[in-house]
Amino acid sequence: VQLQASGGGLVQTGGSLRLSCKASGIVFSINTMSWYRQAPGNQRELVATISSGSTTNYTDSVKDRFTISRDNVRRTLYLQMNSLKPEDTAVYYCNTRLRGSSYWGRGTLVTVSS
Fold first, then answer.
1. For residue 30, is pLDDT > 90?
2. Which of the two ends of the chain, N or C, has the fewest CB atoms closer than 10 A to its terminal CB?
3. Rounded to a whole number, what is the distance in angstroms from the first to the last CA of the chain?
4. pLDDT by residue (tens digit) across 38-58?
């Protein structure tokens, strides 16, 4: 299983970014996919999840600002991030679980300047 995240960068407060995560080695369409993030000195936290049926869930701090989506044909997971805040600064990771194991992408850094 390989998960390749991209799309991070430096953005000003109030700006937008779209993260992508290309998956291989799994039947992407049937897997629940998630985005996590880890800020310096903090534990990794769940940001958003999308099921195989495209049901979504978000942590409270990103509701109404972030949108998780998936393209099963392209085997790609997305995270559209709007109205970014400095507290959104973190390394963002995509994640999936398969047969009891958890798989992580390398992570992409998002920095929001104030």
1. no
2. C
3. 37
4. 999 999 999 999 999 999 999
